[in-house]
Amino acid sequence: MNPVEFIRKKRSGQTLSRKEMHDFISAYVTGEVPDYQMSAFLMAVYFSGMSREETAAFTDVMLHSGRVIDLSSVPGRKVDKHSTGGVGDKVSLILAPMVAACGVPVPMISGRGLGHTGGTLDKLESIPGFRTNLSIEEYQRVISETGLVLSGQTEEIAPADRKMYALRDVTATIESIPLIAGSIMSKKLAEGIDALVLDVKTGSGAFMQRYEESVELASALVSIGRAMGKETIGFVTRMNEPLGTAVGNWCEVVESVECLRGKKCPDLMEVTYVLGGAMVFLGGKASSIEEGMRTCESAVWSGRAYEKFLELVRVQGGEASYIENPGKYPKAAFSPRVESPASGYITGFDTRLIGVLATELGAGRMSVDDDIDPKAGILFKKKIGDHIEKGETLAMIQTDRPSRGRPWEERLAALISIGPEPPERTPLILSIVDGEGAKPWGGS
Ligand code: URA
Q: Which CATH number fits domain 79-325+433-437: 3.40.1030.10, 3.40.640.10, 3.40.50.150, 1.10.10.10?
């Protein structure tokens, strides 16, 4: 393999074979190909793109750069969900125990929050004692015993992606659909799944803000999943306001537990039931997504989903007493109230900047080594379309950090728009992407 010829071939828009990509990427993992040649290759992909077949081969090479977990001893079709991430996106915490309670095993390897988006691992780690750094053997044992597992990526999973992702971050090559698709799918396919449901977010708080780009990413992800022999269904869902009412770590766990115990949280549970319904359908426990949604609803109303969550917390070392009695959790030093500057209707949120503000409160990281304060976060009292009076509470902030300069509450109030008329209602689940392409989501 001649690295210069390999890079030149991609630079001139030609298609690379699986063998060529395997030889180049393997040499990168062992250090024979240096960062500067990989950077040039990544930039060539950024500009020249990859065909669908090439993207699938690229994903396969990344997947096999590490270990693929064997869950064949766990009975049933194993199904996971992946979300491209957003603000207040706590769906996995509710969905995984709910789907497991319907009899579909859920192996889930999640990530940490970075930038303005939150991460499932940080939320779980806000539960005192909860361990997410499971070895592959522990991961296999937990899913065999409880029917679900929520863990972090180990060194053995897709090591090529770990090294390339860090390089992409500093070479302006993150925003490439084949590179994103290969990165996400190589990690998901290593989990030992039989099928996958994808939630590609779109809107002001999403990684991909434009609807057309989100559909393109969803289609690329679904096509790779199917090319790799896994049934895959994608949804494009709106992320133009925080999902649910809590943004942070512990406060999102509390909101998830309330939903698992039957609290009504319309937008959050709409997304959770649709994704869960698709998982139960792909897991063979329902004959349609709609029937899967009804199965999920009964798992919540019967209390089985909540019991499954408690079981998971105990098995992964967490102190379940905090879940049963959230009031005993330590409180933040400051809790300023954000009051409405005007009367009218909530017309919009600058969701990305709300995620950034939550990070500054201590709920997220500015760089990978930063510590997180699990208590930090925001509790919203209003959603888009709600009416509010001047002086009424818009949100409550929780933080140990005093604001430097402009008070926290003033900064948050400036990110919420209020107008005289209610905004037009728009659907939350925009489209479904399956083997036949993208179409508007009409189920409910
Ligand atoms: N998430 C990933 O895991 N990889 C990407 O490239 C982008 C988002």
A: 3.40.1030.10
